[in-house]
Amino acid sequence: MDGDSSDEQLLAAYRGGDVRAFERLLARYEKPIWSFLRRFVRDAAAAEDLLQEVFLRVVRDAQESGPAWKGEAKFSTWLYTIARNLCIDRARRTAVRGSGSASRPMDGAPEGDGEPETATLHERIAAPGLATDALVAGREAARRIDRAVAELPDDQREVFLMREVMELPFAEIASLVGVSEPTVKSRMRYALEKLRVALADLGDAGKLASGAAESTGSG
Amino acid sequence: MAQRESNCQGVSARMMELLYGELSGDDRAVVEAHLAGCPSCRAELVGFESTRAAARRALDADEPPARAHQAILRAAAAAVAAKPPKPIEVRAVPPRPSFWERWRVRWTLPTFATIGAVAVVVLASKVFLEPDKTVELGRQALRSAPAEAPAAPQKAAEPQATAKAEAPEPATPATRAERERKDEKRPRLQPPAAEEAPARSIAGTATQRRRVVPVDRVDAGGGTMKGGGSAGLARHKATIASDGLFGGDDISTPRSGAAVPNPGKREFAPPPPPRAEPARPARPAANKMRESATEAEALEESAAPPRGGGGQLAAGADAAPPAAHAEAMSHAKAKKAASSSVIDELDRGPAASASAPAPAPPAPPDADKEIEADAKSETRAAAKPLAESPVVRADRLFAQGQWAAAARAYRDLLRRDPHNGDAPRWRQRLAASEQAASATAPATAAPQR
Description:
The complex is a heterodimer. Chain A is mostly helical. Chain A is built from ten helices and no strands.
């Protein structure tokens, strides 16, 4: 199995007992699935459980004599369908329990950041100065972006995440969500406009975000 | 200005496709041309690109938790390890069969196929490769099939002729009617031919015994002989036969149903004819008659004066044979002569018996020695072939110089058929025989004296 092997070939190899083929599949889809789950359910712990559940389903299905995925659709589409359905099921269970976490906007920051949720990016970077600590500014910009995404309506967030994180074309998103392609494009446009407004008060949000990414990569 | 605004709405509608690279070449060129001349649309595109880039960078910076990654890999490896280590594949390969099993599987079918083919060839060679034999068998079958059908009436008629030969006396109308009634009453549980086989033997015996009729003579021969074992039994049988208790006449006469099948009557199909049974009409009857002759001789012996016995006969034992003894001897002689004559009749056949119905004449009461000699000669004659006719016998006795026997034989012939063409010759020989017998009698008696 070389690096150009398709998803279907890797899964077939794993069905034949090649664990490394599955490891390569996991490397391809673990990060986007995690990004989608974490920003869709807005709960890092729940997203981690769902991440394991998504790939455990793939593992179980690969060992079944009659697998659910028979190659009619793309493996990525099937995988994102599993993730989305798990998110919807969890949101329904949470709504029944009355926790309201599914509809509650994600707090943004990943676990362990230790930043107080009350402090805004402007407040945090205003004190030490914007030009003095670019790394902190970049992390703050990322946190603000996560919060802005979490504040998107569910249908817009879903389409935004599928397009940005999973890199699915609009037509496929429309098929997965069950709406028309123009509706998907419209939802995408609304999501980007809201994000632009949310990040406008940060000044040059793009520069901040890019600076944070560069500092993370160099550091 | 209005056209530019309409172009701006169209470009704005296609802004997402342009932003994510899903716009085709021509559309992309049109949109880019509009963006080059429209600062507001270009500013909108730049704003979307900046926001998207900022969001993408923030999303890409998020790494999945290593704990979940390891858990997933462990689960995947465990699933592969938990999967049966291909025992199915091991089972899929059957164990190598033994040499005997391989040999059996490999050769069983060809062996049986070869045997079957050889059998077919042998049978085919028997049937098809010997056309002469096959054709001959077919001809025999065709010959036997039509031959059996007309053979049945022949065989059915054969007992008729046999019965006629055995019983030349025509049945009276009353007897025939009674027989037909019995035939109708008797259930036909056996084919007619099967019934006729035993019927012939019984009828033959009964008929002959009735025709012999020495029973009356035996009865008349004296009450002292009634207890004589076989003679009494023979008489009893003869009586039963003559009374028809065995159905002698009924059976001996062939049934009309057997000879002419009644189409309106449900009967069995005629059985296959028996194998070429030659007509032996009088042979068993002749044997029976010889037995009767033997019985007569036994009676003759028993009628002889007992030696040292009691009673009236014992009183005159030392004296010459009394008159009673002579009479008994004469009766015995007569019976023996009658038996021999009947034997001759049976040997001759029905025609001869029909032409000579008269009983044998009583023997002349003269010389006992002559009688004994005649008896011996007759015994020798009885040993002759049974087909000897009375004429031939008389001629033979005459040629042998047995004058007394020859005279008696010619006398019988003349009595039976006095108008025969040979009657003059018989008379001449009778006279010559009597003369010779009278001439030889004193010569033989002289030395005894």
